[in-house]
Amino acid sequence: MSILDTFDLTGRTALVTGGYRGLGLAFATGLAEAGADLVIGARDGDASARAALELSERTGRRALGLALDVTDPASCEAAVQSAVEFGGSLEVLVNNAGACFHAPALDVTAQELRTVLDTNVGGVFEMSRAVARVMIPAGGGSIVNIGSMSGDIVNRPQLQPIYNASKAAVHHLTKSLAMEWAEHRIRVNAVAPGYVKTEMAPVDDPALRQRWIDDAPMQRYAMPEEIAPAVLYFAADASSFATGSVLTVDGGYTVV
Ligand code: NDP
């Protein structure tokens, strides 16, 4: 087997939460290009279905789009069941869905607090538990969580205290689940991106330019496709000895 073969996902099924746009779409596309059949889930079921159709036409892989709210445990269970019925098995979960609000701590509303924690932490936990119930009897699998450099640093100038805390929680939850499920051959790892051009990150806002771009070693943001190979690495056998790892992909932002 050549080293490139260890990145091959042919015959496997992957579920990507929030996979119809932004980073999630780049992850879904990358996994499909590596041979996986894809299930995309987000609250907007129509957008998920459209993205799945386009993905299938572009990559030649089978793809299913469905409605999923990761803050609702019953919805997580239902999505995993649909994915198993669609794929016949489920080998990869990418916990990508996330929420972020910019506000100083004193202005964060109770609703924003709950939304960010329930989506970014509760969603990762409930989706991971739902797939573990399938992966354990099947003999294992790979879970890739999308954390953030915000789990390690405090971003400026925008204030996002709960988001930062939620991503630190994602990193540590990754390690906790990795330890707990290693005996079941479920590997759990995380990718921590820096600034990436998506709807969540207004990278072209001039007010953010000094801190986000000028202060960064590479002096630029990333495109979503630049983060996808790290997700593929953890999803595939290429990372067979990696679990509990958090891989930062941030253009050097957090080294300065
Ligand atoms: P986007 O806002 O572009 O996409 C977020 C996706 O998550 C959407 O598809 C959205 O669909 C889905 N989503 C949100 N809430 C839920 C929910 N409750 N249930 C299911 N799906 C949900 O964000 P990005 O692509 O930028 O971010 C993707 C991930 O990467 C997030 O976890 C984010 O924190 C992380 N990240 C992003 C960075 C960046 O610079 N962009 C940097 C570091 C990390 P819908 O609203 O229809 O549910």
TrEMBL record:
PROSITE patterns: ADH_SHORT. SUPFAM superfamilies: NAD(P)-binding Rossmann-fold domains. Signal peptide: none annotated. One of its GO terms (molecular function) is oxidoreductase activity, acting on the CH-OH group of donors, NAD or NADP as acceptor. Pfam families: adh_short_C2. Gene3D superfamilies: NAD(P)-binding Rossmann-like Domain. Keywords: Oxidoreductase. Belongs to the short-chain dehydrogenases/reductases (SDR) family. PANTHER family: 3-OXOACYL-[ACYL-CARRIER-PROTEIN] REDUCTASE FABG (PTHR42760:SF115), SHORT-CHAIN DEHYDROGENASES/REDUCTASES FAMILY MEMBER (PTHR42760). This is 3-oxoacyl-ACP reductase.
